[in-house]
Design a protein that fits this description.
By secondary structure, this protein is an all-alpha fold. It has six helices and no strands.
Length: about 140
């Protein structure tokens, strides 16, 4: 069986894929937020990506499908969602490109990556604020 790569060409990139047999997009819940204790357990961006993949809305969604609808290189997708930073040969794994975070989250059906980024940014802003206060 071969995959028809042109089948998704007519669909706008900002619209999530509607699997056959699923309720209409309006009836489906929007992207869901994960509990804060799961986000707090993530120490790195890579951990947040792995968490997002683990909690995807459609458990049967494959990495190859995600690559085709999000415009990602199929061979790299397996690197994006692995929790370990290095592969079995010791090479550093690739990270999900920043410009693809939004569309990937839409397809996975959760906001885990954005939640982690927001938490990480807030922590950094607070640290910077305290550093500036101490320097006065």
């Amino acid at each position: 069986m071969t995959f028809d790569y042109q089948a998704t060409a007519g669909r706008p990139w900002d619209q999530p894929f509607q699997p056959p047999g699923e309720p209409a997009a309006a009836a489906r819940p929007r992207m869901r937020f994960l509990p804060s204790h799961l986000i707090d357990d993530c120490k790195t961006f890579r951990d947040a990506c792995a968490l997002a993949w683990k909690h995807r809305a459609f458990a049967g969604q494959t990495e190859a499908y995600l690559a085709s609808v999000c415009g990602l290189t199929q061979q790299h997708v397996s690197d994006y969602f692995r929790p370990d930073e290095r592969d079995e040969k010791g090479r550093k794994r690739r990270q999900l490109p920043a410009d693809k975070v939004g569309i990937v989250q839409q397809q996975l059906g959760n906001c885990a990556i954005a939640q982690w980024l927001a938490r990480d940014m807030a922590v950094r802003l607070v640290e910077e604020f305290f550093a500036m206060e101490q320097s006065r």
